Each structure stands twice: as C-alpha cells, then as structure tokens.
Amino acid sequence: MKIRVHIDRLVLDGVPLPSGSSGLETARLRSAVESELAKLLARSGLGPELAAGRRLARIDAPPLQAASDRPATGHGMGQAIAHSVHGALAGAGAVKKGKMP
C-alpha cells in the first residue's frame, strides 16, 4: 500500500526555539516529522477508513504543548508532531493534548 501525506501548513505558535539556530532547527523539525511519521505508518498503518481507500482533504491533529522550562528542539518537536499526526490518521484525532519532549 502506498501512503501519501502532504502537510501544507504547520503552525508553531509561541514555541521557544534556541536563538540563532532557526534554519537548522527548522530542517531538523522537517526531517524528524518525515522520518518518525514514516516509521509509525510502516509499523501500525492507518485507521480502517483510510486503509479502505478513503481520502481526506484535511485532518486536524491534536495540539501539543511545549515544555516551558527549556527551548524546544526541532528534532523533539518533529517527533511529537509526527505522533500527533499519526494519531489523527489512525482515527485517534480526539486524543488528549500531547506533550512535546
């Protein structure tokens, strides 16, 4: 089965990134989302409706909350985002707010 996911927009509101490294952290975030989401989809696939061929124009993944005591890393945020998106794709879009590592 071929799975194609297109993320058009990702909103990171009020996320404290390390200063002076935004380009590098953005690249790490993108890479982490792609690789972690690919692992999750390969391991556990999609929810029944999507596995049956249903297409969705949009999903809303549950929001995440960054730890306020330390700056978020692109890699850590990317993994957390991938888990949130995978949960929505697997039919668990109404789960409680997740935490970013």
TrEMBL record:
It comes from the Bacteria. This is Uncharacterized protein.
